[in-house]
Amino acid sequence: MCSSKVAVCGGGICGVATSYFLAKRGVSTILVDPVGVASAASGRAGGFLALDWNDGSPTGTLARRSFALHEELAQSFGEASVDYRRLTCEAVAVSGGGGLRQRKVAGVQWADLGVMGAPRSMGDESTIAQVHPKKLVDRLWSEAQRLAGSSFRRSVVGVLTEGEGGAVSGVRLSDGQELSAASVLLALGPWSPAWLGLPRASGVKYHSILMRPSRTLSQAGQPLGASDAEVYPRPDGSVYVTGFPDPMAPVCEAPGEVEVRREVTRRLASTMGEVSTELAQAPVELESACHLPFAPDGLPMLGAVPGTPGAFVATGGGCWGILMGPAIGLGVAELMLDGEATSVDIRPFSPARFT
């Protein structure tokens, strides 16, 4: 049996951010994932960050702390290396449909077809930012390797404990090998199973396309009325578009084998053509799909697993998983090492609420 102090199951932003903050404290981890780092939603999401959109909800404080952490990480790594920048966001009411007259609206970069009324600001550069999720997670992982010699393995299939109801002792891999560990973090996103008495996570499947207009935009947006699409331009000149989610359900597709349904991606491209002459002419460079993770009550599930000393869980960020990922990683790392999270309060999200 190979030995490691900490095994982190899941190569998304929650697991990798935890590995990073553990590495900053000198703790090496073995990261276990069936496909690789940032291979699911953390490598396919839009990376939109909002300071205050969660205010008034249970995740408001967590989101605000993580918004600040994103800037700190970007400054440490170099903003260009993770495509971090501040930008604005506008909601624009549009009628949709074809054959609409072009109408330029002051303050709106991307929508000029079927625009109804004035746009509504959803945030300026003091409250809105973005990051490239895969570039961020890849950088967090490279830093965890550099700082503490963390390593990667594939496919966890179970958690080992010291007898019934005993402390965690490691994980079992798909090849039958057992890795001993004093602590195990389950950060398996929408594939989080009902292990150790935890509830099974569910997923909401989102499709996305990456378009390439003729200029670089710096304004995110939501065309209201014609669709529920979301528009996130990136600093490299591409535009990430997502929307039309599936209903929440247990995820049956295997990691790395998520089907991209062409009727959905074509609908996204068609919708952009109905609201923007610029995006109507933009080629689609990439089509993708991923499942966003949700716990049964819609809130993150973070903390120590009741009844199994040494076992921890971090999942359920939903559509704000990238935003909250750094603060989740910091809080869980502190909990694992110190017995409590002092930089951010994750107690409201304890899995004990399901027992």
Automatic annotation (TrEMBL):
InterPro entries: FAD-dep_OxRdtase (IPR006076), FAD/NAD-bd_sf (IPR036188). It comes from the Eukaryota. GO terms for cellular component: cytoplasm. Residues 5-335 form the FAD dependent oxidoreductase domain. This is FAD dependent oxidoreductase domain-containing protein. It comes from Emiliania huxleyi (strain CCMP1516).
